[in-house]
Automatic annotation (TrEMBL):
It is found in: Cell membrane. This is Trk family potassium uptake protein. The keyword Glycosyltransferase does not apply. The chain crosses the membrane at residues 24-42, 54-73, 85-109, 140-161, 202-221, 233-258, 304-336, 357-379, 385-404, 416-436. Its main location: membrane. Keywords: Cell membrane, Ion transport, Membrane, Potassium, Potassium transport, Transmembrane, Transmembrane helix, Transport. InterPro entries: Cat_transpt, TrkH. The keyword Membrane applies. It is a multi-pass membrane protein.
């Protein structure tokens, strides 16, 4: 029965919430994309006053909601301020999750968060239990607001040197939200992203901080904030921070070495510029999508290495995509344990359950299957070099947004395929699998053990 104090219906009263939490998440994101598509098709959304085609509006709305950053029209020149703000709102909803935003309004209205709502939030935040889920959502909203606002102010002060303060403030807000949510959208125009600031330490540091902050996940941020009280870190936090640091360091060295003499990327830069560019291009494949050098101008070895970084992606419970750093760490741990003849995977003196290994293996194989399948189809429909197609497909799946220039020239079939890939990458393949066919309960019996030769 509805409370007299609250004229709004409870979320659990809606009939569609009889669906499972994964199905609700899929329908919720699809609904946000549809609304965004309709808004972007309005003449007021374009700078010229002309309506954007449905397929292009759908692609842009999907890319924004799935915080990817791949674009078929230039965001800075094609869209009006209304269109850009629409994209910005989609990025914020998509980055934090529509259930997180719904919870924000519920908290503002002093509405009670029901058990059903908590189950959906648990699925959305990729948590193993509902304990403390509303408290985590509050922290997510608080941390996001603080980081985005402070970095927007810093970027505005920096860009006020190059443009009027009002415009600099708008640019600061847009790019702070876009980069923290690992979306990669920019409004500088000409598809040039942040290439004009390749040598600028201030812009590089602020943007990389936004990317890493959004990519390590809110669980890690919460754990770091509580460290002064607890004096201990979760295993999850240790794994995420160590793998994130390792990937960034390795990526910086690899790009610096391979691109040092490349006249289209690092070659013309001084030593400081080379280091900043290498560092930035190592951070941005963590699903951010911004770039300070021409990605199409990179050597093939660097491009393929970035494909690997994009495939790994960010961390669980973050605004980023990919198979996640924890999944990759678990796979590495399984290989090391097998080579050492051990039965258990041990990380930071903790033994991990076999169920985690199966989940990591499932996520990795499903991701590979999706990327390979889409790349094979696109290689037929687009007629471009396979590395370019593989790069674009991986960028879409990992919700990165880096591009070698293929996206604006995609065919209709290609745009639909990339849209579906971005959607699958943002929601997660396991969530989609559970939405299409809910997972079964535990088996009541076991089959006899069989033996098979491996390797």
């Amino acid at each position: 029965m509805r409370s007299l104090a609250s004229p709004f219906p409870k979320i659990s009263e809606f009939r569609f919430l009889k669906l499972s939490p994964p199905q609700i998440l899929v329908l919720g994101f699809a609904g946000v994309i549809l609304i965004g598509t309709l808004l972007l098709m309005l003449p007021i959304s374009s700078a010229s006053g002309h309506s954007l085609r449905f397929i292009d509006a759908l692609f842009t709305a999907t890319s924004a909601t799935c915080v990817t950053g791949l674009v078929v029209v230039d965001t800075g020149t094609y869209f009006s301020v209304f269109g850009q703000i629409t994209i910005l709102v989609l990025i914020q909803i998509g980055g934090l999750g529509f259930m997180t935003m719904a919870t924000l309004f519920a908290l503002l209205l002093k509405r009670k968060i029901s058990l059903r709502d908590r189950l959906i939030l648990q699925e959305a935040m990729n948590q193993s239990s509902m304990e403390g889920i509303v408290r985590l959502i509050r922290k997510v909203l608080l941390y996001s607001l603080i980081i985005e606002a402070s970095c927007a102010a810093l970027l505005a002060l920096r860009w006020a040197v190059d443009m009027p303060f009002g415009r600099a403030l708008y640019y600061g807000i847009f790019h702070a939200v876009s980069m923290f949510n690992n979306a990669g959208f920019d409004i500088f125009g000409g598809y040039r992203s942040l290439t004009g600031y390749v040598n600028d330490p201030t812009v590089n540091i602020i943007v990389m901080f936004l990317i890493v902050s959004g990519g390590i996940g809110f669980i890690v941020m919460s754990d770091l904030m509580d460290y002064r009280k607890s004096r201990r870190l979760l295993l999850h936090t240790k794994v995420v921070l160590s793998m994130t640091a390792a990937l960034i360091l390795i990526g910086t060295v690899v790009i610096f070495v391979f691109e040092f003499t490349n006249s289209r990327t690092l070659g013309p830069l001084n030593l400081g510029g080379k280091l900043w560019a290498s560092f930035f291009q190592s951070v941005t494949p963590r699903t951010a999508g911004a770039n300070t050098v021409d990605i199409a101008g990179l050597r093939q070895a660097s491009q393929f290495f970035i494909v690997i970084l994009m495939f790994i992606g960010a961390s669980p419970g973050s605004t980023g995509g990919g198979i996640k750093t924890t999944t990759f760490t678990l796979m590495i741990g399984a290989v090391v344990s097998m080579l050492r003849g051990r039965d258990d995977i041990v990380l930071f003196r903790y033994r991990l359950a076999q169920e985690r290994v199966f989940k990591a293996l499932t996520i990795t194989l499903l991701a590979l299957l999706l990327i390979v399948s889409v790349s094979m189809v696109l290689s037929t429909t687009e007629g471009r070099p396979f590395l370019m197609i593989l790069f674009e497909t991986t960028s879409a799946f990992a919700t990165v947004g880096l591009s070698m220039g293929l996206t604006p020239e995609l065919t209709e079939v290609g745009k639909i395929l990339i849209c579906l890939t971005m959607f699958a990458g943002r929601l997660g393949l396991l969530t989609l699998a559970y939405a299409l066919g809910p997972k079964q309960g535990k088996a009541l019996y076991k089959y006899p053990e069989g033996k098979m030769i491996i390797g």
